[in-house]
Design goal:
It is a peripheral membrane protein. About 35% of the residues lie in helices and about 25% in strands. With about 260 residues, the chain is of the alpha/beta class. A hairpin with a 2-residue loop joins strand 4 and strand 5 (about 70). The two termini are about 30 Å apart. It binds adenosine-5'-triphosphate. Adenosine-5'-triphosphate binds near residues 42 and 47.
């Protein structure tokens, strides 16, 4: 469904600050894949996510979605196509708006302007149902301003908003990294539930090695702008963290240098 074909991304090309963030990346993402992504600092993980979401254009190569280059997709179509949650809990929601207003915005995302909304009561019921599944009482705080929520609460809301309109692909960019362990686990559980129920195609960057092995059906490893290993489900499920790190070292020739690494 989504193919990266020899995708290469340079920053500041032709200057002394030139940086190759991604080199000849080839990746074939199939419908229903849940791919975890690990790699060293500056390996190109965020650049990969930015190319897939169409935020960045490859300098060489292509990102093709069901036969269409992502860059040529109209913005409204792309925003409906992709759901994304960032590391920063502030990034996915509007702090001065209420929970209900944020959800309304997410619900309208990518829909033609002025589309009839239906009864307010029906909308509230839907929002309450969705919020109550998180299990942290947000359904009783629908008129609270989102800026007053904790990081974990905001991240839970961001995840709900990103998946509200059932995106074709869900991009999770270290979305639990800024949370304490208990909140990170809550968001991980919620992620697994939503991905499973909606059968979402998902790409998740993580610094948590145990999580990278436990979640999803594929694991890709990145180093210095390259995808150096793509581990299928059969192999991934029996891997240990030390084997994973050993594999990284064997292929890259150096240890995984990730200053935010969590072993599990
Ligand atoms: N806007 C930019 N301008 C210049 N260089 C950039 C820019 N964005 C990224 N880079 C560089 O490209 C390389 C890849 O960056 P990227 O953010 O994709 O890595 P990453 O794997 O997500 O890193 P980290 O795990 O440290 O967040 C890095 O060397 C980074 O410094």
């Amino acid at each position: 469904m989504l193919n990266l074909i020899n995708a290469t991304k340079l920053f500041n090309p032709g200057t002394p600050d030139e940086k190759i963030a991604l080199i000849n990346a080839n990746l074939n993402i199939k419908p229903g894949d849940f791919i975890t992504v690990i790699g060293s600092n500056g390996a190109g993980k965020s650049t990969l996510m930015n190319l897939i979401s169409g935020v960045l254009k490859p300098d060489i190569g292509q990102v093709v979605v069901e036969g269409t280059e992502i860059q040529s997709m109209p913005e409204h179509k792309r925003s409906r196509w992709i759901g994304r949650v960032f590391q920063d809990p502030m990034a996915g929601t509007a702090p001065t708006m209420t929970i209900e207003e944020n959800l309304t915005m997410a619900y309208k995302r990518g829909k033609p302007r002025g589309l009839a909304w239906g009864a307010t009561a029906a909308k509230r019921k839907l929002f309450r149902e969705q919020l109550s599944r998180i299990g942290i009482g947000l359904e009783d705080r629908m008129s609270a301003k989102v800026g007053l929520l904790s990081g974990g609460e905001r991240q839970a809301l961001s995840l709900l908003m990103a998946t509200f309109t059932r995106p074709q692909i869900l991009l999770l960019d270290e979305h639990t990294a800024a949370l304490d362990p208990a909140r990170a686990e809550l968001i991980t559980r919620l992620t697994q539930e939503i991905v499973r129920e909606m059968n979402l195609t998902t790409l998740m960057v993580t610094h948590n090695m145990e999580q990278a092995i436990r979640l999803g059906n594929r694991l890709i490893m990145m180093d210095q702008g390259r995808i150096i290993l793509d581990i299928p489900e059969e192999r991934k499920s029996s891997l240990t963290v030390s084997q994973l790190l050993g594999e990284f070292e064997r292929i890259s020739g150096h240890q995984l240098s990730d200053d935010r690494i969590v072993l599990g």
